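Appendix C reproduces, verbatim, an entry submitted by the partner laboratory led by Prof. M.T., so that reviewers can inspect both the input and the predicted structure.
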Amino acid sequence: MINGTDDNELVFESRNVEAYRLLLKIEVALREFLRDRLISKYGQKWHKRIPGKYLVEIRKSQSDESKRKQFDFLRLGPLYYLTFGELLEFMDEGDGREAAVSIGGAAMLNQLRLLLLPRNAIAHCRDCSQIGLEVIRNTYSQLVNALTEQRFSELLKSPDVGIRPEIAMELLKEALSAADRMLSELRSPCVICQEYNEARAQFWWGDKDLAGFDTEVVDSAIRLILQYNELPTGLGSAGLRQRFIEETGLPELIRAGIGSVSIT
């Protein structure tokens, strides 16, 4: 680099960088838009309504990524494991088509498909071309207008990253261990970390292979802990709490949960 300029800059470098930046925002906004619409329709278990043919590809990509821990990849939401082409296919059928209608339907999908060629060129280190860049710019503007600038910005601020299973395991182990100590002294309430609800909303919750631990036993333990927390705490209530603990086997269930999230 001489006098603040890079002597090794490619002749199409700035064009490709701008194009990639716009493509990144387009793709993230689309995935988040589709996720938001599916959540509105099906709730936090929306990912279970993804058509099977896409789930197969998602699971394969997730499995491949999990074998490359040295890269410290974030465990993203399921829609991020679809290729751009697969995402557009999804948005052209069923629930995806319902979502696409609100941003222009078939016309918008056709415009988005035009991005596949310049996108492929950038991915393979070729010049996306000035025409390709203009197509990307126009598509970006159309998508922003369809969503509104405010909505587009909101979608980009909350990508489906969520909480990693390994982080959730650490926090849940701490919370369950603290609850175990509280129960041994018949104290109440047992505080459950707020990350528990965040973890339960993740696509990997409920799938032991993806989570890396038995989420069902954790759910069972925390359900009983919440019931325990609702018991009276006034004078003479210790006997009631003791009886609840004995009848439900809560301490054993909590320790089973601790054992599950302690697996490395």
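The mean pLDDT is 88. Additional entries are available on request from the coordinating office.
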